[in-house]
Amino acid sequence: MGRVVVDVMPKPEILDPQGKAVANALPRLGFEGFVSVRQGKRFELEVEGDVTPEILETARKAAETVLSNPVIEDVVSVKDASGEVA
Distance between CA atoms of 3 and 13, rounded to whole angstroms? Predict the structure, then answer.
């Protein structure tokens, strides 16, 4: 079985209150040097057989229409678990 990984992030112009909360908490917890945090979503789609370029393209289309809200989010990557990017 193959696995496709899809990463979705808020568009840069969209406020990210959860990311802001994490960014504010990091220094209080002793993690210094981070200026901002953006929180996104990760989807893992299992497929029968190998991940082919056709599967990656189908996953990208699904990500753009079902897995993300195109008004406020960008699909930033679609790749197989071994790292091949669509």
Answer: 31
